[in-house]
User: Fold this.
Amino acid sequence: MQIHILTLFPEMFQGPFNTGIFQRAIDRKLVRVSIHNIRDYTHDKHHTADDYAYGGGAGMVLKPEPIFEAVESLKSEIQGEEGVGALPIILLTPKGRLFSQEIGGELSKYSHLILICGHYEGIDERVHQHLVTDEISIGDYVLSGGELAAMVVVDAVVRLLPGVLGSEVSAVDDSHATGLLEYPQYTRPAEYRGWSVPEVLLSGNHSQIAKWRREQSILRTLERRPELLDKASLSSEERKLVDRLKGEA
Ligand code: SAM
Assistant:
């Protein structure tokens, strides 16, 4: 997968993509991330990428021209490559659809993504209306810029690319992958300050361990995020258990 990120602050991306799982994915050529400075697509000597808002109000708005030019130039480069299908052009904005594991999975299917990071008061509405194909928010709060949001989306998507994690199983069991929160995890020592690891995890009985983990996932989801259970894929036995526990609560 090739990911292109348009930003006014390319220096913010030094670090997060150069560590751990991400660096390994880049080294193994499973993903390539290119950071593009929006100012490189301006034509005046001050490289002006923002301007005052029409109608007044505090704060600057990102101008449409450099963003349109950057995206159009990338699009023609990408679409010249072989086997490129649909090309999502995603604006990070608090007005977008709420990002989730499901949307991460959807984005992981594309060969290329273009992400646009806003800043200041936001971006000229014509970019929203006539350039982007998708708008994503990472939560109901306002960040100073789209860079951190882009990092969140990219990290969640790259984890889902085949071969990025050591074993496919690690992503399959993650919280939200199944519509449930993940079960509790333990490592050595088996006892710490008098707190013991549940006996079943030391038993070596894989079917009992799988059963315990599944139950714990359901219970944890019921306690912390009960609304997720409405959409989770549960067996009829599990659904009955949930209904009974909800009734008891
Ligand atoms: N005035 C805008 C509004 O109320 O919708 C907020 C602008 S915000 C200060 C600047 C930029 O940060 C946005 O253009 C967007 O790119 C990014 N941003 C802020 N919050 C975000 C969120 N929750 N999800 C994704 N991007 C966000």
User: Anything to note?
Assistant: The chain has a mean pLDDT of 95.
